[in-house]
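Run: sequence + 1-deoxynojirimycin -> complex structure.
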Amino acid sequence: MVPERGVIYQVMIDRFYDGNQSNDDPFYDSNHRNYRLYWGGDLEGLIDKLDYIKSLGVSMIWVSPLDDNINRMASGSAPYHGYWTRDYKGIEEHFGDWSDFKRLTEEARKRGICVIVDYVPNHAGPATDGEFGSLYDNGTKVTDYYKDAKKARLNPYTGSREAVYHHNGDIKEWRGFQLKYANLYGLADFNQLNPWVDSYLTDGARLFVENGACGFRIDAAKHMDLGWLESFYLRLYSERPLFIYGEYYALSTDRTADLYDFYRYSNVSPLLAIPIRGDMARTFAFLGSLKDLSEELSSYYSLFVYPNKQVNFLDSHDLVRFLNMADRRDKMERFHMALALTMTLPGIPVIYYGDESYLVSRDGKGDPYNRPMMVFNNTTEAARIIRTLAELRKINDALAFGNFRTLYANYSTWAFERTFGAHKLLVTMNKGSPRDLTLNLDWPDGVYRDALYNAEMAVKDGTATLTLQKDGFYVFHIERPQERPLIGSLTPSTARPGQEILIGGAGFGESGRVIVGGREAEVLSWNSTAILVRVPKVETSSAWVNVTVESNGKRSNPAKLRYYSGNDVPALVVINGTNLRGQLWIRGNISELAEPRPLLRSSRGYYFTVVPLPNGTVFSVRLYRGLPWEKLEPLNVTLYGIGGRTVVLTLEPPVCPTTTVVHSPIGTNPVPYIAPAVLLLIVATVVFRRRG
Ligand code: NOJ
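>> structure
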């Protein structure tokens, strides 16, 4: 399915519904008082409640991690949440087994719903508590953190001590090397560049795909090398077009280096819109200007090639639920407004389980109290809002793919428009006293009814007039026939040759051609709103190639596909940089390297990064210096390498793939090295002559 047309329902499996009491023990609290124990929810329970979920109009379920977790308490908690994996090939016995998971995906599919699995490739369980990072491969023990420490070696380039896991302590500095190569809150951090780990994590994820999953929510994306993630995603995408989005935990849009690498240059994965959620919730739960919010949202979305593929949410298992946070008389009205906004902004909305039934905890606010036992009630006003806007999203192309333009904003009133071809959407809201609003609106003359409350808007000669009630939230919309092909999305929007991608949009007609980077793609299926194609091999050294649809003699808008040439392996790319300084970047002459990639500086004097590189291909890169949000300054240095697991870049082009490379230091100026080298030669000659 085209993800932009859908709504995601997020379920924490342990807290949803107990369909099988025989798997409740151990570490189980039948009274649901101790939030750090298992409460009984499982896959059978989720299957039992699929009709309930379907009644909300949603079409995707994001289920919390299902892999087998540690069998001990750690830091006073059982792994009821699922984030402390010990076997990536098995299902946690409290939740069921592979046949239950398969039945879930099959039963969900019958209801037009697909299942997205939360997957945790950054780390296993806690390293120093519980089972001490014990790791199993389909039931057979492989290692644990202490055994692994004995085998760990220093990587000469990155300065990381590593084997299956990294052994570089806990993250203390939340940037650079530590962010990716140290333990996140004491969790055993994987060394994904270890070939065994690389295939183990990939095979583990494949099991979910083979059993019917349609995508993944990737935990802790910011703590893994971007290049490894790219390569991991590409391997999963080769199974079928999946919807994968990453969790990048950052509570604001501050220009920290890592945030910008991810957003501005890579755009390889949709992300959970965590940086803007705080402001959204605050603006409705407490104080805050809708004008400021509108500006922040526009600048956030402008960072992405595909803003409509980012994932919006109001509540989650990591943040305080809105209704636990808001302390005001009109908090229900404000909650409804914030919920409706989440569902109408660019991006795919997530509804956290129980938002439709006003689920809150009386015992506390944040984690773990934001994970109470589910209360089922789909007859509330919140459920009606969710259902109405989820149904509208299926038919209104502007809601799924439209642009985003504020028409009017002040402290308490906001009107924005979204357009996609002949489909339109006008969203208005008002936190203040009732008021009239007049807008310039390029809509045909007429009287329009809003989807939620049947409010009325009159449009005459390009001017709209309407009355906004206090805490009113109105959604006006137009769906007219789409006269020409229009691409709204690619799923996934990154691909290598041979991979299938799903083109979502409108006006595609019955048949036609799809052109990818100038080459015609093989069409696998075609209807007026979705086309499945196989990506051809393209001659390009650019990062992005255009995709266009031709139908009934008309050509669509070009959509951007992040292209990888294929046969990629996650490669550690290294520069001997003893005499280099500052934040450095490389940019190269193959698609994989065409966007600037930031380098990390290691304690060993090298600069490095991880890139999915075509194995055996000779390439060159140029070196740049600069901060991510500035213009990068070229350093006039060209370096060469050949794709492989570890690539040390050299100043001379390699002659053939078997050439031995000399790891000479690379700097902008070789002169400082000439004098010491000559001096050394003279001294050696003198010593040699005297001895002789
Ligand atoms: C982010 C998840 O959302 C959170 O719940 C989890 O504890 C951490 N990642 C660590 O896996």
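>> summary
The chain has 15 helices and 41 strands. Residues 83, 120, 219-220, 247, 317-318 surround 1-deoxynojirimycin (CB under 6 Å).
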